[in-house]
Amino acid sequence: MSQGQGVDLSYEDGARAVELAREAVDSYVRHGQREQPGSMREAFYERTGAFVRLESTRGRGSLRGCAGGHRSGDQLGHVIVDAAIEAASGDSCGSEVSPSELSNLTVSVCIVGDVVLTDNPLADLEVGTHGIAIDGGEGGWLYPTVPVENGWTAREYLERTCRKAKLAPDAWQNDDVVVTLFEGQVFREREADGSIEQV
Question: DSSP assignment of 14-75, as one string?
Fold first, then answer.
């Protein structure tokens, strides 16, 4: 098991990260433009990974887009903008977010902290602490909060991430599949374009 250090954001930085992702989605969906991070908070100059999730609040709700990566050589502010745009595009969940959906979307951002390369994922994985990224198949990842929200065991969490990567559920045990665990700070809107909480 080897570990790499990430960043640690304050609540204010995290709230601004969600606002930045929201602005990027709005700019892309309404005008087809890439939002520039503008005057970034100091933490946004750090080079680390981030993920953005867009969820619909209509009906029973559904995932509308997700994008990002657990490692990046780019500054965090730019990583958030790029992930937000990709999450809103048709490349993410099959259909591009439309302007009419914007008022019914919640935005969440996961800022990658410590990254752990593991050769024993089941032993090293802490549900509620770690996100998982699978390098293999089409690649896949899930937020640290997802297994808690769904009541999954560590094994179920690994299997679901493999499925997301279009792999067999037990592929995490294969030598040619790289499993990376990452700690992440998750900030999200409580409701569409609403107040922001850290989870």
Answer: HHHHHHHHHHHHHHHHHHS-PPP--S--GGGGSB--EEEEEEE-STT-EEEEEEEES--SSB
Cβ neighbourhood burial of 20 (10 Å; 0-12, 13-18, 19+):
buried
Which residues have a Cβ under 8 Å from the Cβ of 36 and sit 6 or more positions away?
Answer: 81
151 band by pLDDT with thresholds 50, 70 and 90? very high
Indicate the residue type of 53: R
- The secondary structure element, H or E, covering residue 85 is helix 76-88
Rounded-to-integer distance, Cα 70 and Cα 85, Å: 17
- Which structure tokens are listed for 187? 């900030």
pLDDT tens per residue across span 40-77: 778 888 898 999 999 998 866 688 888 998 888 889 99
pLDDT interval class at 2 (50, 70, 90): very low
Cα Rg of the chain, angstroms: 16
Q: Are 56 and 98 in contact (CB under 8 A)?
A: no
pLDDT by residue (tens digit) across 32-41?
888 777 667 7
Phi, psi of 84 (to 5 degrees): -65, -45
